[in-house]
Amino acid sequence: MFGPTGRLEEGQRLLLLEQLQSWCGDSRTKVTVKPVINLNQEKSAPGYAVPDRIRERVVLRDRTCVFPFCGRPARGCDVDHVIEYDHDAEAEGRPQPGPTETENLGALCRFHHRLKTHTAWRYDMVAPGVFEWTSPHGHRYRRDRTGTTALDPPDPGPPRIPSPRR
Q1: Is residue 160 part of a domain?
Q2: Does residue 159 sit within a domain?
């Protein structure tokens, strides 16, 4: 904890230190102690599976599903390889284009993970925790911790044709 507050993850709210202390004094309280995680430190793992230590970094960094306008908590999301993992690369002696590392993983709820996988939605990570999405129609969005921003100017609609003067 940093200072006199902590964070209740499921409720996404701050708690006073006194409240945490009272909970810890209650035998019914379940306390989970986790190591400090440096979100600025990139981690990687061999193979396709995402180990818990890397998954936790992605969950803490992304906080929610990173699909445009989705707010589902990252804790219940899939962790997706932004650049697709090539299952044949190692066997064929090629470098892995989509490694299992924090800089190539994003939290996607199951619905948006499937939408990305089975449709023409595409995305890139342009900075840690900053994703740029392209829709099947070519519209682009930036998704970061503050939310979603459309990168394309709004469609102006059909041109206005002045009516003839009489």
Answers
A1: no
A2: no
How far apart, in Å, do the first and last CA atoms of the chain sit? Answer: 75
**Residue 106 tokens, joined:** 């994003």
| HSE of 11, CA atoms in CB hemisphere, 13 A | 6
**pLDDT tens digit sequence for 109-123:** 999 999 999 999 999
What does pTM read for this prediction?
0.73
Distance CA 74, CA 110 (A): 11
Say how far residue 5 (Cα) sits from the centre of its chain: 25
Q: Would you tell me how many other CB atoms lie within 10 Å of the CB of residue 48?
A: 13
Q: Which residues of the chain have pLDDT under 50?
A: 1-2
pLDDT of residue 38: 67
| Alpha-carbon dihedral sign for residues 148, 152, 157, 163 | positive
Number of structural domains in the chain: 2
